[in-house]
Amino acid sequence: MGLARMDTDQLLAFQRVVREGSFSRAAVALGVGQPAVSARIQALEVAVGGPLFSRGRRIALTPLGESFLGYAARTLEVLAAGVDEAALIRGGERGRVSLGILNSLANGLAAPALAELLAAHPQLACAVRATHHEHVAALLWDGVIELGVLLWPCHEADAANLVALVRLREPVVLVVSPRHPLAALAEVRRADLVRLARPLLRLRWWRSHHPELIRIAEEAGSAVEVPLEIAHHLVVERRAVGFFPHTLVARELAAGTMRQLEVVDLPPLVRDLALVRRETRAPLSPATAHLVAALTRRAQQLGLLAGPPTRRRASAPRPRGPRR
Fold it and tell me: Shortest CA distance to 286 belongs to which of 144, 146, 95, 85?
């Protein structure tokens, strides 16, 4: 009952009277009239059930006032800390962000964006999952993550509606070891892949193998199907060639440990992706908005931005599938 009749003005008046040693000096320090201070102290005494000061020529704390003083100080400290924390959360300095992202984009897209975010906002709590498309969608469906980067569009049934915040388009490129015979050709054609790309790896950078690459692999007699991480090693070691999402191999291409080749009679390959969230009327938290901005800036640096955000929805699948 007493708690309901207390407020911070009363506690501040009590603390200031103790500090100044008089009601009149406390009133000056608080910028109010002395009657207001007296009224606040009287209301507080009603709330705690007894006098806090002994009145006379000099005021002094009663035993009740002595015991209550520490609680009042701690209450004001906790409230001040709560106000400061709320300001940090409103500004995105504190809070929690959660993201699910395809394995192939974790190092090139998510890691630099997260490094930028934590450098600017080191007190944020972050949870990031790098996994395959179906698992990212399931994590979004279950509310484990707030944001996801996955293949787009996806129309599988029995799933949550997703809203694209940022659309991405990533080139898929043929890469080989600089020592591979294909790297020595002045011009690479489809027939060269059939003849020299043995094996041409079957990589699932989309939900299923690209039909044209399946035909080329079959003509080449190639039947090597491995995760992208293993395929990466095989190419570096000149054991195979393959078409990779550009972000996954950008560092090796820059370092010269891999070489990108253009197949002149094969149309360019791309995969469409999106940074998504479940459809909701609730706005992004300030912390999550910071993460969206960091991911967008990194995607722009990589040349992955496909256009403005879209309200188009996609159904996200729940079942597990192959790694992306």
Answer: 95
Q: Which is nearest to 109 in space by CA: 259, 255, 291?
A: 291
Locate tokens 């209450």: which residue?
A: 75
Count of C-beta atoms within a 10 Å radius of residue 17 = 26
Cα Dmax for the chain = 106
- What pTM did the predictor assign? 0.68
CATH number of 95-324: 3.40.190.290
Residue 312 pLDDT: 40
Q: What confidence score (pLDDT) does residue 153 get?
A: 85
User: What residue spans in the chain does CATH classification 1.10.10.10 cover?
Assistant: 3-90
CB atoms within 10 A of CB 227: 15
Q: 135 CB contacts (<8 Å, ≥6 apart)?
A: 100, 129, 320
Query: Which tokens belong to 150?
Result: 């996955």
CATH of 3-90, one of 3.40.630.180, 1.10.8.60, 3.90.1150.10, 1.10.10.10: 1.10.10.10
CA dist 213 and 219 (Å) reads 10
Half-sphere exposure of 237 (CA within 13 A, CB side): 8
Residue 10 CA to residue 28 CA, distance in Å, equals 15
pLDDT in tens, 137-175: 888 888 888 899 999 987 643 355 888 999 999 999 999
